[in-house]
Amino acid sequence: MLGYKKVGILIVLCSVFLLAPPHAFAMHIMEGFLPANWAIFWMVLSLPFIVFGIRKIKRLAGEHMNIKMLLGLCGAFAFVLSSLKLPSVTGSCSHPTGVGLAAVLFGPAVSCVMALIVLLFQALLLAHGGLTTLGANVFSMGIAGPVVAYAVYKLMNRSGFSTGASVFAAAALSDLVTYIVTSLQLGLAFPAAEGGVIVSIIKFMGIFAVTQIPLALSEGFLTVIIFNLLLAYNKNDIKELGVLGGRI
Amino acid sequence: MAKKNMLFLAIVVILAVIPILMNKGAEFGGSDGQAEEAIGEIHPDYQPWFESLWEPPSGEIESLLFALQAAIGTGFIAFFFGYFIGKKKGEEQTDR
């Protein structure tokens, strides 16, 4: 049975879905589309996370072979998911991020390095995203989303939700938050002539829409599929990482 | 676990198919273009100040690179689970 605390947590988490953007705007901000001052601002903000993340990965990779393999799996998963351009209900396409898995297993610092690798690949080879907007994109996809994923997972897992439900919510919300933060970044950089930043953010984000939800749900389900496989074949490694706090 | 995973995978496929059936005749273009338009509306005189260093010369090359990205990831995921499933089976056999 769901207790009051659990129901409360679910209501708060579901309310985030109301913030989902009406149109699937840019997953990543395009090359040259952030003014230089904002481009630099987000780069400076993201840099400490990346430095910390690389150090953490070096330390983890030195522990033993299985952990190194798990790190590789997280990177590979982000690679696949961010290459899947899925159709959305508004008649445009966007793609999931795939970094929720790394966030749940290793924390946001590690997932921000995964995001950096994927974003570099796409900026250099696919003209998708960009080098000048790399800092902003790393912040939305690699830091903001994963921080939420990590927090949601820990909160739900400790409150007695099953691991599957916690992973699902963490990955789906991380996907949505990445979108919301991208809209905030664009709104801050391009305030509307009348009404300023807020009007712009609303324009980029919208309030009542449901467009991004199918994509976020897909990301949640795909992450749970991988996590179930890990529980079946790598349970000891996951335990070692301290991921399974509550019941399984 | 396998049954559950197949169900989840089926849901993901359905979630991708529904939008296509719902919006017959829609363009299903990338979302980046829409953001460009929105910026154009808010700040009509904004000029991007940096160009991509390299762009795929055609849609075909672009899909090649996207497929490559997916293939690299999928390849490692398949290797990962092949390795650990085999390892677990091997351990179970030696335990007997």
Profile the largest sheet of chain A.
2 strands, antiparallel
Radius of gyration of chain A: 18 Å
**DSSP strand tally of chain B:** 1
* Total E-strand runs of chain A: 2
What's the rounded overall pLDDT mean of chain B?
A: 88
Condensed summary:
Chain A is mostly helical and 248 residues long.
Descriptive overview:
Chain A is mainly alpha-helical and 248 residues long. Chain A has a single domain, classed as Arp2/3 complex 21 kDa subunit ARPC3 (Orthogonal Bundle). Helix content of chain A is 69%, strand content 2%. Chain A is built from 10 helices and 2 strands; from the N terminus they run H-H-H-E-E-H-H-H-H-H-H-H. In chain A, strands 1-2 form a two-stranded antiparallel ribbon. In chain A, a hairpin with a 4-residue loop joins strand 1 and strand 2 (92-94). The longest helix of chain A has 28 residues, at 36-63. Mean pLDDT of chain A is 88; it is low at 21-25. Chain B is mainly α and 96 residues long. Helix content of chain B is 73%, strand content 2%. Chain B contains 3 helices and 1 strand; from the N terminus they run H-E-H-H. The longest helix of chain B is centred in the C-terminal third of the chain and has 37 residues, at 59-95. The two termini of chain B are 24 Å apart. Classes of the chains: A mainly alpha (248), B mainly alpha (96). Chains A and B meet through helix 3, strand 1, strand 2, helix 5 and helix 8 of A and helix 1, strand 1, helix 2 and helix 3 of B.
Question: Any key phrases for this structure?
Answer:
heterodimer; A: 248 residues; mainly alpha; Arp2/3 complex 21 kDa subunit ARPC3; two-stranded antiparallel sheet; 2 strands; 69% helix; globular; B: 96 residues; 73% helix; 2% strand; elongated
Describe the protein's topology.
The complex is a heterodimer of chains A (248) and B (96).
Chain A: H1 4-15, H2 36-63, H3 65-81, E1 86-87, E2 92-94, H4 100-106, H5 108-125, H6 134-158, H7 163-189, H8 196-205, H9 213-233, H10 235-240
Antiparallel strand pairs in A: 1-2
Chain B: H1 2-22, E1 29-30, H2 31-42, H3 59-95
